[in-house]
Structure to design on (184 residues):
């Protein structure tokens, strides 16, 4: 599943908490620097894919008439073009491979910046990072559903998409993450 930009700080926080709690990594400078590294790398990855998708959309728009004449399915063509340009933009399309690569980058950057120390195999810690990403992705829809359900029980009805709704949603979302140990 694709990571959306608003989720980057939450995933980064989960990664730092899980590394801290794994028992075989020593945090040299605390959680925050690890959160920052993870968040920056996640955001960079998201932005690469966004740039790729914007380019694909441009190509599709430029060829709209031809596609309509040929009766080409826009969604299929989008995927084909994205697949063709992915390497040029440095985007790994397989989410499993992508998150594995991202986990490696996060671990490598944290280690090179002396943010973490460990005496187990690199793969073992990379698996902690990967599992953090996967766990968050598997949980976020459920968390969003719980928050939306909680908001629906408010006496005063809030309109989804309004500023007030969004602020309350974010506050409750973060509280639910804290309750689940995914946010410090």
């Amino acid at each position: 599943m694709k990571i959306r930009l608003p989720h980057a700080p939450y995933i980064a926080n989960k990664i730092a908490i899980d590394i801290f709690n794994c028992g075989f990594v020593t945090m040299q400078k605390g959680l925050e620097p690890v959160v920052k590294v993870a968040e920056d790398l996640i955001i960079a990855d998201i932005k690469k894919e966004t740039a790729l998708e914007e380019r694909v959309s441009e190509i599709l728009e430029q060829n709209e008439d031809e596609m309509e004449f040929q009766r080409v399915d826009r969604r299929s063509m989008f995927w084909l073009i994205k697949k063709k340009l992915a390497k040029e933009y440095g985007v790994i399309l397989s989410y499993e491979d992508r998150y594995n690569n991202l986990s490696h980058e996060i671990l490598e950057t944290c280690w090179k910046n002396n943010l973490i120390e460990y005496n187990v195999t690199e793969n073992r810690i990379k698996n902690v990072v990967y599992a953090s990403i996967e766990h968050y992705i598997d949980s976020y829809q459920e968390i969003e559903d719980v928050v939306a359900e909680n908001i629906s029980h408010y006496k005063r009805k809030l309109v989804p998409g309004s500023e007030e709704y969004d602020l309350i949603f974010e506050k409750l979302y973060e509280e639910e993450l804290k309750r689940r140990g995914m946010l410090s």
Remarks:
- The first strand starts at residue 25 and ends at 27.
- The chain is about 75% helix and 5% strand.
- Residues 41 and 103 are 9 Å apart (CA to CA).
